[in-house]
Amino acid sequence: MPLAHATRQRLSDRFFLELLGALADELAARGYNLLLSKITQNPAEWIAWLLKTKRADGVIVVGQSLHHQHLNEVAASDACAVVWGNRLKGQRYVTVGSHNESAAYLATRHLIEQGCRRILFLGDPAVPEVRARLDGYLRALGSAGISRTPTLEVPVRFGSDAAYDGVSSLLDAHAQFDGVFACSDVIAVSAMRALIERGCRVPADVAVVGFDEIPFAAYTTPPLTTVRQDCNAGARLLVDRLLQIMAAEPAQSEIIPAELVVRASSLRLHHTTVT
Fold first, then answer.
1. What Cα–Cα distance (Å) separates residue 2 from each residue in 38, 47, 71, 168, 207?
2. How far apart are CA 44 and CA 111, in angstroms?
């Protein structure tokens, strides 16, 4: 798990646990064990060492982080590796991942349909998957004739309090926004905490959508609208592709559709109608 973009992000991150659990089950069903490592340096050298020393038969990289070129080096060395991540220009390695751009488009369009016109984006676009989500967010704004507002794009990292601090700072500065699209459920929950502490009603004043559909998303107050990534399908495809590469068979990248799960945190129109 390369985490150069967020060295403080823990392996206990809820989405990581969901994907790792699915991977462990899928690998066990194929007769393999899972060796887990968090790395913050160049993964190309680490993967080469891991395979050379025979500590592993193959490697699944969870997230590209800032290592797109390094992962291309891994592919050029014919190493047995696959990546959970986004399809990128000039990519030579095999990826499996959600359709981040279209899922973000759906999430943002949902907020627009709920009457939101100034939508806050929370996420670090240096990460390829988040960059795709920003592209989907911008496409939805453009399709609705809403101008881009750079001050409403806050580059917060995963696994930090930056979302809480960023939203708090905007509210303290009296910034105007009526919707939030957060690039993870943890970020969304942090944003909701900042909103509620400052007297904003969710969703009546500000509608909120997250990303990942981690288990506690349905149990927040209000329950969180989010994008569901299919971890079970992702794990199955990652293992399928890795075993194909290990057998010297052709392996193709795969994009998995993501689904918008609508709950109370974003239903601004419904709340306004009821009240």
1. 6, 11, 11, 30, 32
2. 40
Q: Which residue is it, tokens 């149990």? A: 219
Tell whether 265 is covered by a domain: yes
Considering the domain architecture, whether residues 122 and 165 belong to the same structural domain is answered as yes
Listed in sequence order, the residues at least 6 apart from 31 whose beta carbon sits closer than 8 Å to its beta carbon are none
CATH number for the domain including 246?
A: 3.40.50.2300
Domain hosting residue 47, numbered range: 14-98+229-257
Q: pLDDT tens for residues 42-92?
A: 777 878 888 888 888 999 999 888 888 889 988 988 889 999 999 999 999
The answer on 173 and 86 residing in a single domain is: no
The structure tokens 């992962």 sit at: 71
- Phi, psi of 228, deg, nearest 5: -90, 120
Contact present, 87 and 95 (Cβ < 8 Å): yes
Residue with tokens 């057998």: 247
107 and 185 co-located in one domain: yes
Q: Hey, how many other C-beta atoms are within 10 angstroms of the C-beta on 184?
A: 26
Q: Is residue 8 part of a domain?
A: no
234 phi and psi angles, rounded to 5 deg? -60, -45
User: What is d(CA 88, CA 139) in angstroms, rounded to the nearest whole number?
Assistant: 18
Determine contact, residues 109/144, Cβ cutoff 8 Å. yes
The Cα–Cα gap between 63 and 13 comes to 13
